[in-house]
Design a protein that fits this description.
single chain; 221 residues; alpha+beta; Jelly Rolls; five-stranded mixed β-sheet; 3 helices
Length: 221
């Protein structure tokens, strides 16, 4: 009974304190989603989600796929972690699919598909401090694309000349934060901070609080 009461108290506390403007749901990237055939399937492209990607010779792109309908609005963000070595790193994000304009890309796309591309080099970065994980990024792209027809679409994060580095792609604007996200928070925090190379830096108040409560909930569950 005491455990249940404590859990019921902690759950709404976590949800209430979640910074909704930055509570992207992390999509795990195992490094295998390197082309259209191996694209990671996304079932809710309208839900705010984030995928991290390290560009190297074996993993030049990261691909996600979803089923879209004509008129759907797809929100895209492209960012780079604030790391000195990446100050001049300019990746790109592409939306690939039917009915989109013909495009010349550095990688193969499905037959009959077109693409809309956004390259970081064409934008001024916006500095962003993310309190949920205590990380910092340069956000280059924030764009919304209306899908022209029904069909299978792809979101691709890449670098135009395949230069090694790090990027993240976020999509969707609908904030969803529930018990599964809370229970996954310790793993999410560790993954995101390692990607931004700040694992050894002190945690701020918000991530510290979330980590304590999430760890307790995992123990109680």
């Amino acid at each position: 009974m005491h455990t249940r009461c404590l859990t019921l108290f902690m759950l709404p506390l976590m949800i209430a304190l979640a910074p909704t403007a930055s509570a992207h749901r992390l999509v795990v990237n195992d490094g295998s989603h390197v082309d259209a055939d191996s694209a990671l399937v996304v079932t809710e492209p309208d839900v705010s989600q984030l995928i991290l990607h390290e560009v190297d010779q074996e993993n030049q792109e990261v691909w996600l796929t979803f089923q879209g309908q004509a008129g759907d609005l797809i929100y895209l963000q492209l960012g780079v972690p604030v790391i000195e070595a990446l100050t001049e790193y300019h990746p790109a994000v592409a939306l690939v699919g039917p009915g989109l304009p013909a495009a010349e890309l550095s990688f193969a796309i499905p037959g009959g598909a077109g693409a809309v591309t956004f390259e970081a080099a064409d934008f001024q970065p916006k500095f962003f401090s993310e309190p949920f994980t205590g990380t910092e990024s340069w956000i280059y792209v924030e764009e919304t694309v209306e899908l022209p027809v029904d069909g299978e679409y792809f979101i691709v994060g890449y670098h135009p000349v395949s230069a090694a580095g790090k990027l993240w792609v976020a999509f969707g604007e609908k904030e969803v934060f529930g018990l599964p996200d809370i229970l996954a928070y310790p793993d999410t925090l560790r993954t995101v901070r390692a990607f931004h190379e700040v694992s050894n830096e002190p945690l701020g108040f918000i991530p510290r609080l979330f980590l304590i409560v999430a760890t307790l909930l995992r123990f109680l569950m």
